[in-house]
Hints:
By secondary structure, this protein is of the alpha/beta class. The chain folds into 5 domains: about 5-100, SH3 type barrels (Roll), CATH 2.30.30; about 105-265, 3-Layer(aba) Sandwich (Rossmann fold); about 280-355, Orthogonal Bundle (Helix Hairpins); about 395-430 and about 460-605, no CATH class; about 605-685, no CATH class. Strands 7-8-6-9-10-12 form a 6-stranded mixed sheet, sandwiched between helices. It has a 5-stranded antiparallel sheet with strand order 4-3-2-1-5. Helix 6 packs across helix 15 (about 350-370), helix 17 (about 395-435) packs across helix 25 (about 555-580) and helix 27 crosses helix 28.
Amino acid sequence: MKLSEVKYSETVIITKILGHGSFRKRISEMGFVKGKEIKVIKNAPFNGPFEFKILDYNVSLRKSEADLIEVVPVGSFDETLNGNHKGVIGVKTALAVQSQKSHIINVALVGNPNCGKTTLFNHISHSKENVGNYTGVTVDIKRAEFKAKGYTFIFHDLPGTYSLTAYSEEEIFVRKFIYEQTPDIVINVLDSTSLERSLFLTTQLIDMDLRIVAALNMYDELEKKKIEFDYTGLSRLMGLPFLPTISLKGIGLDRLTDKVIEVFEERDKITRHIHINYGNDIEESIQKIRLKIKEDKPITDKISSRFLAIKMLEKDRHIKELLSQYPNFRDIENTSMKEIRRIEVLFDEKSETVITDAKYGFIAGALKETFKNPFRKEKTRSEKIDNILTHKYLGFPIFTAILFLMFYATFNLGSYPMNWIDNAVLWVNNFISDIMDDGMLKDLITNGIISGAGSVLVFLPNILILFFFISVLEESGYMSRAAFIMDKIMHRFGLHGRSFIPLIMGFGCNVPAILATRSMRNRNDRILTMLIIPFMSCSARLPVYILIISAFFSKYESLILIGLYALGIVFAFFTASILNKTMFKNKETPFVMELVSYRLPTMRTIIYHMWDKTSHYLKKIGTVILLGAVIIWALGYFPRETENSKQSASTTENMITGIQYSPQSGSGTETHGQSGQLANSYLGRIGR
C-alpha cells in the first residue's frame, strides 16, 4: 500500500521509494529508506500534509510525496521484532519485508521502433506479442508478470519511439507513462547497429533522472561488421550499465535481469546520475528555469525539474500545459521565454535545434571514445538488396509482381487444401448421418453445426497463405520499402507514404490496420487513412469472394480475385482524393521514415504470426459464425409440419408446378418434402 493510505496511529514499514533520482535522494536523507519503521501521526486540515514519526523525530510530507512511498503493516512481522530496535527493524524482519514487497520490480521497456524491444519482451517474459520489422508495430502497452531469481518482475512493453518530444502520440504516451507510473527500472533497448541515433533517446531518459539499464540489442550484427566497441567504457561515461543482448536468440537476457536487480538494489557500481552537458550558455538557461520550477514541489517529486526546464526551452506544449496548473506558472513561462530568446539570438538558431545539436554532440564525443574503426567502406547487405528492390525503374514492377504473387498464391495454392477440408467436412457429415437416427438432434448437428461452420472452415488455407505473405513482408523489412516506392503515387491522392503500411495490413484485418495508423505523425493523415482502410478487402471477405468467383467466374478465378482487391484500392484512392480536396486541406507533412535493415524472417516467427492472426478467424467460426449457423438452421427447421399441412402443401405445390412425383422416386419425394418444410418454416416466411 501507499504511505498516504495508512490510517492514523498505525505503524508501517517502508518497502519501496518511487519517483525519480533527486526525490529518492532527498527523501532518503530524511530517513525514508527501505526497512525503516514509520508511524502516521495526523493529517493537516483541508487534506493538507501528513505528519509522520520516523527515527524518533516528526516530519511532514504532502500527499503527492506520500503516494511515492510503498509500505506494509508492521503487524505482519511482529514475530521477528525483538524489542529495542528504536525505529530500525531487525535483519530477519528486513528480509521478510523484502520478500513480501520490495522484491517486486516494475520495469518499463523503452526504445526506438524496430530495435527488437518486443522480441526481447517476449523472450524475457515468455510472452507472445506481435513483432515486425517495420515502424509502429507496438501500438499500445503490453504487460507481463513473471518470477525469476527470487523477484517478481512486472514488464511493460511501451510503444517504440525515437524521442520523448511531444511530436507523436507514442512519444507523449511513453513520456506520460514514465512520470505517472514511475517504473523502478527503465530498460532502454538500443539497436547496436544504429547507436548514434538510438542514444538520443537515452540522453532524454538521463535528463528524466531515471534508473536505466541499456540493452545493446542485435549485438551480433555489430560484431559481424568487425567493429570494436568498448561498451564498458561507454557505461562509465554515461553513468549507466550497457549490456550486449541478442533478443532473437535469447542471448544476454539472463545477465540483463541480473543487472536490473543490481540497479534496483543499488548495488551496481557503474550507475550514477550524470547531466548531459549542453554548454555553459544553455546550462545557464536550464538552471534559471529549474529554480522557478522547483518552487512547485508536487510536480518535481515525480518529474525531474531539469527535464521540465529543458522541455520548456524546447517549447514543448504538453509540458507547458502540465505546468500551467501550478501557481507560479506565469513566472516559469516568462523566464522560459526570456531564455529562449537569449539562446536563439546567441546561436542564431531555434532553441530546440540548439539542444538537439548539443545532445548529438555529446553522443558523438562518447562514441568517439569507445568505438574503434566505426566507419566502413563496403556496402552493407541491405544496401546491395536495395540497389535492386528500390531501383528507380525496377522497384515498382518488382513490388507489383510481389502483390500479384501474393494474391495468386492465396487462391490457386489455397484451392488444394480447401478441397481436402471440404471433402473432410462432407465425410464427417455423412458419417454422422449414418450412425444417428433421424430427428432434430441429427439435423442440428449435420445441417446446422457441421454444414454451417464447415462451409466457412474450408477457407482457412486461403487466409493462412495471405497472412504468410504479409508476415514475410513485415519481418523481412520490405514493408517500409513498399511505403518508399508508393509515396509518390499516394501523394498524388493526398495520402502520406506511411499510410501504405496500415493499408496493406488492412488486407489481413482492418482493426489492427486502423490501430497501426497511430505511428503516423500528423492527425489529419491518421484520420484520412482510417477512413479509407475499410475499402481494403480484409480476410473476412475472402471466403465470400472465393464463393462468388467459384460459382460464376471459374475460368478466370485468380484474375477476378485480384480485380476485386484492385477495385477496393481504386475506391480507396478515389475517396482519399475527394476528402483531401474537401475535409483535409493544407495538411502537408514531410515523409520521414526509417528504411530498416533487411532481416531473414525466422519460420518460428512467421508461423506464430500466421497462427496469431488466423486464430481470430477460428474464434469467429467457433462463436459468431457457429451461433449464426444454428440460428439459421432453427429458422429453417421450425415450425415442423403436421400431416395435414404436408398434404395441403403437396397438393398446392403440384397444382402450381404441374409436376407429379413418382412414388418410386425417393430423391424427388425427399427434395419435395424438404422444399415444403422450408417454405413453411420461419425462414421461408421471412423470404416471402
